[in-house]
Every structure is written in structure tokens, then in C-alpha cells.
Amino acid sequence: MPETLATQVAVAPPAAPLTIRMHAEDNVAIVANDGGLPAGTSVPGGPVLREKVPQGHKLALVDLPEGAAVLRYGVPIGYALHPIPAGSWVHERLLKMPEARGLDDLPMATRGAAPLPPLEGFTFEGYRNPDGSVGTRNILAITQTVQCVAGVTDFAVQRIKSELLPKYPNVDDVVALEHGYGCGVAIDAPDAVIPIRTLRHISQNPNFGGEVMVVSLGCEKLQPERLLPPGSIPISDARGADEEEGLDVVCLQDEAHIGFMSMVDSILRQADAHLQRLNARRRETVPASELVVGVQCGGSDAFSGVTANPAVGFCTDLLVRAGASVMFSETTEVRDGIAQLTARATTPEVAQAMVREMAWYDEYLKRGSVDRSANTTPGNKKGGLSNIVEKAMGSIVKSGSAPIANVLSPGEKLRAKGLTYAATPASDFICGTLQLAAGMNLHVFTTGRGTPYGLAAVPVIKVATRSELARRWYDLMDINAGTIADGQASIEDVGWELFRFMLDVASGRQKTWAERWKLHNQLVLFNPAPVT
Ligand code: CA
């Protein structure tokens, strides 16, 4: 267990009533105490509670007349449907949700903030790749063109793990890139570009060392040459010059395969060549600027925007100052903050790209007869988040304060340093899959309700928003940001703790809990195009 968490687990929560207000103009605050606060509690500097308010939920600090804007983070998260007396529990059934901000007349790159001061001298031990990228793990990935081959590939991977991997101690793992795409889909539909480039770019993730091998069925729509056209795979330095430079494909329908075991043997034989080269790789000291970090949240509660996400935001600023790449995503969770984001863009073109992504997603949701409000879950609401506006204001703070320098469409590969808005759905698995495609080599995930989320391809650092969760899930949560609400640590303290932990994890000196237990969620491709 990380030492920091061990010491935090032993500390009891404070018993005095503790409420948190995010902004001087807010007319609600959230209850921080474990188990909430009972009716009759006198809130320091505030009203007496008229009813029990659960942990993470809001109380009215003043009388709110019908139609009054309920302010959290200094913005209206809703309007009172009825008069709400001071000391009441303000929950989602009492609020009318604001309309989404239109995408016209936004402030475009107006903030004009100077770049953050550089942060120098931080390094980690990583695997330098032929294309210049750096891996934090040394993994053989087996790319698949179609779901049809998943069972055979999985069978082969089990044998690779038991028969080959023990011979190659410098290789961390073998991962089958299983997915549901490849056939039975409208592959020429314009939006099919998204799942196809996502798969292509995942196979090029820095943690796979440029050693791409493909298992194909043979008759599928997504042919290997379409998935990985010539030139998309850098040839490893370790390969001999006389070696054939074509794509390494095991095709199950190849006539040379007689019976199932001959297919498995082909996969093992090809894998062995890649494992030999991966095994020769060694970690070397590289600057922290080689980190490519994807941040996201899942199972959020009202503390997400108070503790974990602000600490991640502080850490995002540290990473940007160190010259690293940081991506934040989750379109429906930033849509309500679009005016903040476009103002923070480095140029009008970057701001315009953000508007383009929001407009595309608005239209995508409209096709399904929903809007951004479809995002919030029963767990979010139980955790005190009334609606998507409140959730978004808490989600956006993961992006810190740096200027937004770059925007990616879903499945695109990241080529820039600094802070990037990588447009993805908020779905944990789809967001993680798309951030992998962008080239993420480290993942940070905040949670309030709790989720055991993990990915096989990159380490996932999980940050708990509440100490109660960190105590119960002591062997799943890597960092406890609940100490911020408990008054034991500052946002800066936890941000630095996360930054240092990231360098240790990236170097392989520390493993995340998800890695230790091998908790891996599936890749889930974002396919907005039709299936057939
Ligand atoms: Ca998410």
C-alpha cells in the first residue's frame, strides 16, 4: 500500500459540522461530514438545518424564492422550482436545469494568459521508442482487425503468458486488443473513420514499443491494410535491415492453417519475434515532459469538484509547466463550461476547434433524441450532483488553469505538448480507449462513488474524492484527495503528491492498485456510424 494512503486511513474524520462553499457568491454549500448532518444541526456561519442533508449534498444558505438562481462555483446550476427556505436540503427535484449555452458569440481566446512558469528538473525512467515517444510499460499488444478472432487470440495469449513470457523478463505483459468492430458495420460511412483510426492509433501506443502484430480473420470488412496502411508503422531499430518491412499479419483463414492449433502456433511464432525485441529494451532517464497524461472522472459525486478534480487540476498545471502533454476530455461534462474553455484557448483557431467538437456532439446527441442531460447517473445524484451543469463545473477543474493549446477529434493522435482538449464521450471505457489512441502513457481517474476501473495498456492512477471511500476501498484507491475536505491537506499538497506518485508509477517503481490486481476494463470503440 502506498505509505501516504496508509497514514490517511488511520486518521478519523472530524466530528464538527463541516460544509464547503466553492465561491463567495454561492447560496448553497455542500455537507462534508461522513454520513451527512441531521436536522437541527447549527451550521457554523450558516443556518440551522431544517432536515437531514446527506454527505455531498447541498444545503440552502439563504432563503431562495421561486425562480431564484442556485449558485455553486459562482454559476447558476439550476433555478428554484418552489421557494426553498434556508437550511433546506437542495436536491435535483427542487431545481430546473439551465439551458445549454449557445455556441455563438463565445469569447474566443480572450483570456490571453501568459504561459505558466516552467518547472524543471523532474524526470522518470521510461522506454524510448523509435518514433520518439516514450513508454511507461513494455507490453506486447496483439492488434485484431475484427471481433471474430477474439477467442482464438485470447487462447493464444494465455499460452504466450505461460510458455513465452517467462523467457522474457523485461516484458511486462501481453495484451490482446479486443474490440467489437471490424465487420457487420457500414465501413464506408463518414463517421467510420473514428473507430478505424482509434484502433490504428491504439496499436501505436507508446507502451507497445512499435512492435505491431495483427491477427485477422481474412474475410472481414476492416482488412489489415485498411487498418494499418503502409507507412503507419515505424520499423523498430532492432529489426535487421534485411527483414521484410511489411505488416506482420496472422490470417486465420490462410490455407496453410490446418486446424485450430496451427492458428495458435502461428500467433505464438510471430509473437516470439516481437517479444525478443521488446525484451532487449531498457528504461532510461527521460524528462517529465515525455509524460502523456489522460485525465478523466467516473462515478462522480459532489466532492469530485471540491477535492480530487481540483487536486488533479493543480497537478495538470505542474505537468504543463514541466513540458508534458495533458489531455482532458468528456464532451458532455465540459459542454456547460464552453465559454470558460474557449476563453482559455491559445488562439481563435483552437477555440473554434473546441466549438466544432461541441457542435458535432450536440448534433450526435440530437440524432438520438437526447441532450447533454442524459449524462448524469443515479449514483451521481445520490452523491449530491443535481444535474449535468453542476457535474460539469466540477469536472472541468481537472484541466487546471493553463491555456488550452490543442484540440483533438475522437481517435486522433496527439502530437503537441501542453494542455489538449481531446473530444471524447464521458463514458469511462470509451474515453479511456480514445485517450489510449491519442497516445496516453499514464491515466489519472478520479472517483467519488467508487469504481474499480483499469486499463491493460497503461497504468491507471485512481484518486478518491472522499476519505470514507479511500478507507473502505483502501486496496483500490491510489491517492486520497478526501483529506482536502477533512481539512488535513491542501489542494496543492495532494496535487504534488499525485505528481510525484505519477513519476514513480511511470518509472515502474510503483504499481497502481488496478495493475496489482490486474483489473482491466475492455476497450470500447466509439462508433457513431451505422452497423449493418
Ligand atoms: Ca468518465
Indicate how many domains the architecture comprises.
Answer: 3
Major sheet, described briefly? Answer: 7 strands, parallel
Work out the radius of gyration.
24 Å
The hetero molecules present are: calcium ion
> What structural class results from the helix and strand content?
alpha/beta
Helical coverage, percent range: 25-40%
Basic shape: globular
Percent strand equals: 15-25%
- How many individual β-strands? 21
Mean pLDDT: 94
Termini separation comes to 48 Å
Q: Largest beta sheet: what is the strand line-up? A: 17-18-16-15-19-20-21
Unreliable stretches (pLDDT < 50, length at least 5) are: 1-12
Number of distinct helices: 15
Task: Give a concise summary.
The chain is 29% helix and 16% strand. The protein has helices at residues 3-9, 150-164, 193-203, 224-227, 260-279, 308-321, 338-344, 348-367, 378-382, 388-395, 428-438, 467-472, 482-485, 491-506, 513-517, and strands at residues 19-20, 28-31, 58-60, 69-72, 75-80, 89-90, 95-96, 123-128, 134-135, 139-144, 173-177, 213-216, 248-251, 284-287, 292-297, 325-328, 404-408, 418-422, 442-447, 460-464, 479-480.
